[in-house]
Amino acid sequence: MDRTMGVVSAAAVLTTGVATWALYKWLETRNRLKQYTDKYSDSKEVQRQLVHQYGTLDDLPQLKSLISQEADNYHSKLSQFCSEVCQKHGVNKGRVLDVGCGPGGLSFHLSSHFQKVVGTDISYSMIAAGQQLKQFAEFGTPFSSEGGKHISFVRIRVPDCALREKVVFWDEDASALFYTSGKFNCIVVSNTITDMENPKAFLETIVNYTEPSGLLIISDVYNWLNGPEEHLGGEDECLTHSVLVKTLEQDWTYEEEINIPFYVPRCKRLAEVGNAHVSVWKRKPEEN
């Protein structure tokens, strides 16, 4: 009897411990997601992303002479590259998924190359801005001059090359797509991997939403908070690309890479400049 009670007590303690740990992980995940959605739902951040994705250096005269012209039109260049590699590798330019699309700048550029574009983002505010542009094609957005209340207005306009009817936006976490999402010929992940709650899970499951021999294109500056080893499981002093190879090698073949520079304005006199590493991965044929 005493032994039975001891086993029951131990089981109860173990169950309580597991439940407590599970609750802790759930709360931790919820808080991280909240931090992300709060950041990208902030009105100033939406405005910055609008200027980043639709503006040009002509909208920032105080920065124009300081930022290389090569960093302008990042989304146009990336969409053109996606089109070219699909053609090069014999991939049908049918459905393309724009992961972490923000207010839709890349999605609209992709519409001139692909038959159907799905832009997805976890931030409702970003998706709402993209949807508004799909409907009205242009509007003016306030943009902080110096981070405070003094603002100017920047004209935001869908690219002339865009075919808006081809674009749809989903307010959805790409790390947990619904099975009804269907499959895509090309999946583009631009400056989003490092913001994901669980990028490793995303990379391991996105193959389920890719057509056989489809392409995965990752463009990022890899500005991790604590390095790739924290979220992708790398060891020692590793770089993201080497970890991506290990993570994707089961289902994907690494094909090629380029660099595309860009900038993100923070206010009229300040911008972040990056050089995105763009890597191309082709899904391996399904085994019979």
From TrEMBL:
Read off the InterPro entries from this record. Answer: SAM-dependent_MTases_sf
One Pfam assignment: Methyltransf_23
The Swiss-Prot or TrEMBL record annotates one GO molecular function as:
methyltransferase activity
Entry's transmembrane regions: 6-24
The record ties this protein, via SUPFAM superfamilies, to: S-adenosyl-L-methionine-dependent methyltransferases
Keywords of the record, alphabetical order, are: Membrane, Methyltransferase, Transferase, Transmembrane, Transmembrane helix
Keyword Ribosomal protein recorded: no
Q: Does the keyword Lipid metabolism apply?
A: no
The biological processes this protein is annotated with in GO are: methylation
Protein name, UniProt field? Phosphoethanolamine N-methyltransferase 1
What organism does the UniProt record list as the source? Portunus trituberculatus (Swimming crab)
Its encoding gene is what? Answer: NMT1
